[in-house]
Design goal:
It is built from 18 helices and no strands. It folds into three domains: 166 residues, MFS general substrate transporter like domains (Growth Hormone, Chain: A), CATH 1.20.1250; 55 residues; 254 residues, MFS general substrate transporter like domains (Growth Hormone, Chain: A), CATH 1.20.1250.20. The relative contact order is 0.12. Helix 8 runs parallel beside helix 16, helix 10 runs parallel beside helix 16 and helix 10 runs antiparallel to helix 18. It is an all-alpha fold and 485 residues long. 78% of the residues lie in helices and 0% in strands.
Length: 485
Amino acid sequence: MIDGIVVNITLPVLQQVLNATATQVQWVVESYALFLATLILLGGSLGDKFGRRLIYACGIALFALASVWCALSPNIAQLIIARAFQGIGGALLIPGSLAIISASFADNERRKAIKTWSNFTAIVSAFGLILGGWLLQNLSWRWIFFINVPLAIAILSILFSYVPESRDRDFTRLDYSGAMLATLGLGVTVFGLIESSNLGLFHPLIIGCLVSGMMILGGFIFVEQNIYNPMIPLSLFKSPTFSGANLLTLLLYSAWGGVLYFIPFNLIQVQGYSLIVTSAVFLPFILIIFSMPQWSYNLVNYYGIKLPLIIGPLIAAVGFILLAIPGINANYWITFFPAIVVLALGMKISIAPLTKTLIVTVRQSQTSVACGINNTVSRIAGLIAIAIFNIFVFNAFNYSLDKRLAKLNLSDQIRSILEKETINLAGGKIPGDTTISEQLKNGLEQAITLSYIDSFRLIMFIGAILALLSAVVGFLTINEPEKTF
């Protein structure tokens, strides 16, 4: 959880200490998300074939080694590469814990074990947020990666001392070709989207990346349709409800991915919040999402799966709109706090019926695959959303900044310096020329911060639209429980 959320809070710090651009720090998140999203299904399959404990341990070891590399990275390029290896480690370990629990307990004990696992996740998620913020505030950004090492050593010692090995004796084949094509296709596409902020959307390299990425993903679909035991059985999507649930997930989690990525820049670079306070901003979301799990399922049992999948996204849309309201020097308790709470409630109401929808629309033997596909879709949603949203952010920021700078009496030299700094968005540095008056410096700082708020508001409104569209998808495609396979 520290690496999943607190790294986002670290990004404004990395811009400053590693002299990185906004595009480069974007890759710190995207390189991790790319390999995690595309390999997580393969990671689960590797555990089924070679042993869940073994692959889980390999994932933890790789994650820890990559964390050390992250912590020791002297520049942003090495950090990006190390984060990619962290993503591979995450793809091996994330499917493992719940799979081990499911394989280790009988039916009458399994629900209690999973509930304990879920409750513990809530506790350590909240603690991880605060610990990560404290490490950032009082030590260094490097410690949010170093902290993984003693945790990994403790986990591995417990794992080999107490956790039994398990595997699927009937498992036959791994879909390496599907995993490779998915990773390459998404990687090339995301590269094109991210670098379009530097080169322009119609640059030949960008167009080539987007076209080739789509072609490779087309090849992935062809392979999945024509091989035995595919990573993603496309036949599942014949069910309108299953397809609708995954489309709803794609839209809703795309919106949430934008909030998770962009809000730390607003809180730190615009609002002036400290690192530990910024970490705590996400605490209400974590507590609401992971608290009272039975309440969510009682809601589904009482109202069914369709209504919550309409109401939940609508409430989330209100949360996105509320996040668009704060300006400069916004008071947390009357602006960001209620917005985060409303957004969390919307997501909370949506998650349980989404899970139930996946379970009731497939055969029991396909439940784990269906849930794995939905987990992958949610991670791909964040991966693609951040890349696309950044295009809107850069264009909106530059448009707004140009309008504001036109009202200031700037020399060609100052304007030239500012043009080079626009790639850093709200982290752009004001020229240190002593001939610039204090009043002009304040004007430039205000122009930059207000321009970022304009671009942030645009993303929140896009998030609200995506949430509303997901509610429409829920209304049109989700049917009450019926077995279709």
